[in-house]
Amino acid sequence: MSTQFIFFSGKGGVGKTSMACTHAVRYADEGRRTLIVTTDPASNLADVFEQKIGHQITPVSGVSNLSAMEIDPDTATREYIDRAMAPLRAAFPPQVVKVMEEQMSGPCTAEVAAFDRFTDFIVSDKGAPDFDVVIFDTAPTGHTIRLLELPAEWSQSIATASAGSGQTCIGPAAAIQDAKRKYEHALGALRDETLATFIFVLHPEAIAIRETKRAIGELGKLEIHAFRLIINGIIPASEKANPLFAARSQMQTRYLAQIQAELPYPSQSMILLSGEIQGAARLRQVGKIFFDGEPTPVELEAARGKPVKIVTSSIEEVTARILPKGQRRTVFFAGKGGVGKTVASCMTAVWLARQGHKTLLLTTDPAAHLGDVLGQPVGDNVTVVSGQTSLWAVKIDPKAAAETYKARILGDARQRGRPESALKVMEEELESPCTEEMAAFDQFIDYASQSQWDAMVFDTAPTGHTMRLLELPMDWSQQIDVKVFASVEGNAADNVAKQRFGKVIEMMRDQEQSTFAFVMYPESTPVLEAWRASQELATVGIHTGLVVANFVIPPEQVTPFARARRAMQVKYLAEIRERFAVPVLEIPLLPQEVKGLEMLVEIGVLAYGNESRLPSLKPKDWNQK
Amino acid sequence: MTPVPNTLSTSIAPPDVELFDPPMCCPTGLCGPALDQLLLDVNEMIMSLQRENLHVERYQMSSNSGAFLGNAEVMKLLGEKQMEALPIIVVRGKVIKVGAYPTLDEIKANLNGANV
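Output (structure tokens, whole complex):
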């Protein structure tokens, strides 16, 4: 029988990895040879299985028939380069080979290489004949879709290239013919409902529903149609006694009805657990709850631990990292998907604007829902946020950025009097999959260089992709350094680019100008992921200045379930303080989703204090709206 | 070591103009962080030669290594000067420029010279 492929998809923080691992353990226990693979550059598989995994197929201890692998973009790139360079090593002088390798190590190759490794698993002849089931714990929605779109785009760009100039940005032409077959084959497998299933994990919440619908629509365009849903985080019936959870439960009931009406796919639900999901034994227990409908135990172990005292940072310590100090302040909110980066960004930007600072709020997340939280559309051009003076917002959308970039380059070429035939070749080359990333990066640098703002707040994409974006100025600077050939004019253009990147690098490194704020909820994986990212940024001289702990359950809780969850959080709140020696801003779990300016103003005041320069607000009870 | 054979069949006439490029992401440099107008000029020059029905070939070291290996003089220059040798421009089998792109006039002069 052919290998089955199961893709777990959905917005970050919905329990994708937990559900993927629960399925993996269950299938393996049923005797099917199972492999779980993650394509998320900030993978949490190792945390869930409590063992080292990494960039090779690794047996999972305690579960026979189960192996796991974390695709590492850097290793995938090295492997890809090694494969491409192998035939050339013997033939060319060693120094020449070295320069070629440096050239190939550019950012463009990394994207291709990671994707290439991913398709290796799907193309059965090279892929995974040793497995009955391959489970992909994929990266969050927007990026997943982009990844899946690539085979179509690349096939096209390969076809155009061989018809036209015969060159593409993707790599050696001969290898590309193989790649085209491979990608078509992979896409064929994804489209085959007997081979591939896409499972969307979502919370019963407005944004998750919208995102799932959009993702299903996008996959539908790629002729992928086999979908299932897992609705996760259902608040147990016992929590009716708890006003906070009762309010959230009511909200869930509304959204469950909406899911039934608008997402007519086979679906299963999973109850919110009071403890974390880690280790094979726990995954088996979760499997019994999910697959066999066994009742959920309340995990009291955490609650029995010795009491931890929480030191809270003062509002002054926190606002010192947010307010501009005689020059522009740039705040980057980063972290795992679903931790509340967008809410933290919006609330901070609104608060800054209300302090009288001219503020720009931007998102670099292709699956951005900035507009949903602000309660008004946010487009590709900087626009005033209506209802809030001093606040502007904009979204960096890679597709739109690529169009603008192409238009600018072609417009410039036209002005220089280049003939239409030359423009046509340029247009072809700009169809390369690298253009989108290049263009989005270019816009990022553009905004990051603007001096007309007092404050700038970045709502970033999930960790792995953000790390890549932030490290691109360094990578491109290096690429310019290893460039073999440039004309005098080309050299001048390189210098301009290098200076431009240099300024942004300097800005990001200066804690007087920039604050890197990691957002997380107090649980193991978000804390670990943020910690690793913060360590990695430190190696390039960028230091974390603030931590936002989100969805914090207030101390006074009556039900055992809520007490158990609170106890678990308290443990991680202490760990956060210990790991990150920076001010911590706590945002409580709210009875409803954050949406609209009014709510943002309220929670902004809750977080950063009363507004000194403005007349005090009349308290508004948005809870009852 | 056994010599790697030239992948091009010897029965086919060699191209009129051959450009042995330095390694780069793409021949127009459009996928890099900064544009080099000269590379765009080179592209246009090639197109105008092609319009005159001249056979022009452009080689990338990584994807057309056979073309490099099949040209002893190119390999010799590469061995001596390393990357500084590139680009190497060959007109009707004869190296006319090393380490820089020629102008259209330079190429034409060489083509005419070769015709005499």
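Chain A touches chain B through 57 residues (CB under 8 Å).
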